[in-house]
Amino acid sequence: MLILKTVAEVKNFIKNVKEADKTIGFVPTMGYFHKGHLALMKCSKEQCDVTVVSIYVNPMQFGANEDFKSYPKDLERDAELAEQAGVDVLFVPEDKEIYPEGFNTKVEVGEDLTKKLCGIRRPGHFTGVTTVVLKLFNIVKPDYAYFGEKDIQQLLVIKRMVRDLNLDVEIVPVKTMREADGLAMSSRNAYLNPDERKAAAVLYRSLLKAKKAWEEGERSAEKLCDIARDELLCEPLAKVEYVEIYSYPDLKPLDEVKGAAVLALAVRIGKARLIDNVILGVEK
Q1: pTM (2 decimals)?
Q2: Does 37 qualify as catalytic in the annotation?
Q3: Residues 24, 32, 36, 37: which is the catalytic one?
Q4: Across residues 128-155, what is the average pLDDT?
């Protein structure tokens, strides 16, 4: 496995791959790998000739009071896991490679997707995401790029950017990987102490309770959200940020769930801000 640190190195590698007419799969990450990341890499390995993974904790997508400086990092461990997964290139750029001096361009997807859920609570977050992802796409030139469904709003925003800008990359969604108790795997789970980790199981439990009500015929969006929220409020350590439901995949407000919908939530437990979702009305 190659570990490359500059844009020029990656572009030179990609040029040779393209000349050999090989397909490229790309997994953009912020590192501190878990089984969810490894699942993305596995999908790429199965579908593509060459797999490139990036590790970059992108400052543009963090707010002033968020965890940019404390975000967990372990490059040595990540490199070992990536190599074991069969990754061909690990791209680990410094800030100056991604945002050189004088950088002053941003990429924004419209408010219909970004001004709700995490986009309301984290102003500027998705502008940071789309800007860095477009830059990475232009550097790596992948045929396929892999994103987890845990970050469902991010996935939909990236897909819209790709569609609107006619990018030559196919976005491949990958199912959320979960711990035995249902907690969605996330690098931020590392912030949880043992009591908080136990409490965090309430996220998925609340989603399943609402999903069960939907399966039994409940169609009121408000009632489904209330079912999930009430379950969350039974856990004293859980500080609910939002529980909301929208049509899927266009994220339009709903009163009644008559077609595909996504029930999404964000909860703070200790230092960790955790998100999760379930999709209703779509065969998974």
Answers
A1: 0.96
A2: yes
A3: 37
A4: 98
